[in-house]
Design a protein that fits this description.
The protein is of the alpha/beta class and 448 residues long. The protein has two domains: 309 residues, EreA-like (biosynthetic domain) (EreA/ChaN-like  fold, 3-Layer(aba) Sandwich); 127 residues. The strands form two sheets. Strands 1, 2, 3, 4, 5, 6, 7, 8 and 11 form a nine-stranded mixed beta sheet that branches. A two-stranded antiparallel ribbon has the order 9-10. The radius of gyration is 22 Å and the shape is globular. The chain starts with 5 loop residues before the first helix and ends in a 25-residue tail after the last strand.
């Protein structure tokens, strides 16, 4: 197909784009497109944009109410998110939504400790409270693996309650990390270069012991006991995978990225098995960055050997999955200038010429939905690779092209694109101050 002008392409997009209002009903075409899919992956083009969080919540509420979705899985660490899960399922008496988010204390705290997430989990708790039986309640889970030390403590706390002897064995195995405190980067460096013994055998053995479900862990019965055992097993698996992840960071970003996204996809699979073992049909909404949820095979990332959650979910679940990307042209964002630096409200520069975002700005519609699963002239015209912007927890507008853009083929990357031409920064629950030290990311400077 011959190239057409930017103006002509923008005009063609305007003809087929579905304008979005501020009402949940404007997502009717998306709900219809999702149909009976069991996995809906809702992205974001930054980790600090109000509209992305708010609209994902709007869509997720409709999926829960109208389509029977029973879990929300997010780009967050398992133990921190599981604290939220206990709250929304009514397992923590007297707690508030603010209390539920208390686990998110490591950088970047605003990613989950923000006003939009607070509103959503408050809604989720109220929704669940209307259903008396545990099997009808919607859960909230984390997919990521940065919480090595928090997950170690979660495993120990669980075992101390149900099997003190098993806790003693676990404490001995995990003591392998004690020489490095919580400095996972130093551990990964030392273990990779043979400067200290690797903890790999210890974390693998601990995970295997939990997987075997020793008799001491089966004394309690009921769904709540099963959920708590499942959470402990996931924490042990996270420690195993995080140990490998931090050793892999020395060898290069591609390998560590792949380990991380494989872990997130595996956690999703474990969650599916857990829900279905309890007699439910797993229907899960996933919230994460576009770079994790758009099919990597359609991007510059895939060309250099990276895969991601979106690709792995498509490969495993096929047409049961829907991938939804988000974009913005300009506005503001909550982000940091460096890892572990304070959150700032930063101005998002107008998108670069030649990017998808710049093209969508020319459409002249403030907010719209674009169906990329249909076979029409517009979708074919969008198959030409273009730049796409990705802002993580770090935003450096002074190096915009190098730090925040990559080439992608949008119709192969997502099933649906939601564009919001001008957006504003998400509101952190803490407006000032530096977040506590977080685990070191494999992505720099974007931190996605």
């Amino acid at each position: 197909m011959a190239d057409i002008s930017l103006a002509a392409l923008a005009k063609n997009i305007r003809k087929v784009a579905h304008p979005l209002s501020n009402t949940a009903e404007s997502y009717d075409p998306l709900i219809e497109l999702i149909d009976d899919a069991r996995f809906v992956l809702l992205g974001e083009a930054s980790h600090g944009t109000h509209e992305f969080y708010r609209e994902r919540a709007q869509i997720t509420k409709r999926l829960i109410i109208e389509k029977g979705f029973n879990a929300v899985a997010v780009e967050a660490d398992w133990p921190d998110a599981y604290r939220v899960n206990r709250y929304v399922q009514g397992a923590t008496h007297g707690a508030t939504s603010i209390d539920a988010l208390e686990g998110f204390r490591r950088f970047p705290v605003w990613m989950w400790r923000n006003a939009d997430v607070l509103d959503f989990i408050g809604w989720l708790r109220a929704h669940n409270d209307a259903f008396p039986t545990e099997g009808s309640k919607v859960g909230f889970y984390g997919l990521d693996l940065y919480s090595l030390h928090t997950s170690i403590q979660a495993v120990l706390t669980y075992l101390e309650e149900v099997d003190p002897e098993a806790a003693r064995r676990a404490r001995y195995r995990y003591s392998c990390f004690e020489h490095f405190g919580e400095d996972t980067q130093s551990y990964g460096y030392a273990a990779s270069f043979g400067l200290t013994s690797s903890c790999e055998n210890e974390v693998v053995m601990q995970h295997l012991e939990l997987q075997r479900r020793p008799d001491g862990l089966l004394q309690q019965e009921g769904r709540r006991a099963e959920d708590e055992f499942f959470a402990a097993e996931q924490n042990a698996r996270l420690v195993k995978n995080a140990e490998a992840y931090y050793r892999s960071m020395v060898g290069g970003s591609v390998h560590s990225w792949n380990l991380r996204d494989k872990h997130m996809a595996e956690t999703l699979e474990q969650l599916v098995e857990h829900l279905e073992s309890q007699g439910q049909t797993a229907k899960i909404v996933i919230w994460a960055h576009n770079s994790h949820l758009g099919d990597a095979r359609a991007t510059e990332m895939g060309k250099r050997g990276e895969w991601n959650v979106g690709q792995l979910v498509r490969e495993k679940y096929g047409n049961q999955a829907r991938l939804v990307g988000f974009s913005t042209y300009q506005g503001s964002v909550t982000a940091a200038s460096n890892w572990n630096s304070p959150a700032e409200r930063k101005r998002v520069r107008p998108a670069l010429a030649g990017s998808y975002e710049a093209l969508f700005h020319e459409v002249g519609v403030a907010r719209f939905l674009l169906n990329l699963r249909v076979f029409n002239e517009v979708v074919e015209q969008l198959r030409k690779p273009r730049l796409e912007r990705a802002i993580g927890v770090i935003y450096r507008p002074e190096t915009e092209r190098m730090s925040h853009y990559f080439f992608a083929t949008l119709p192969e990357q997502f099933d649906v694109l939601l564009h919001f031409d001008e957006t504003r920064a998400v509101e952190p629950l803490e407006r000032t101050g530096k977040g506590q030290r977080g685990e070191v990311p494999e992505t720099f400077p974007t931190g996605m």
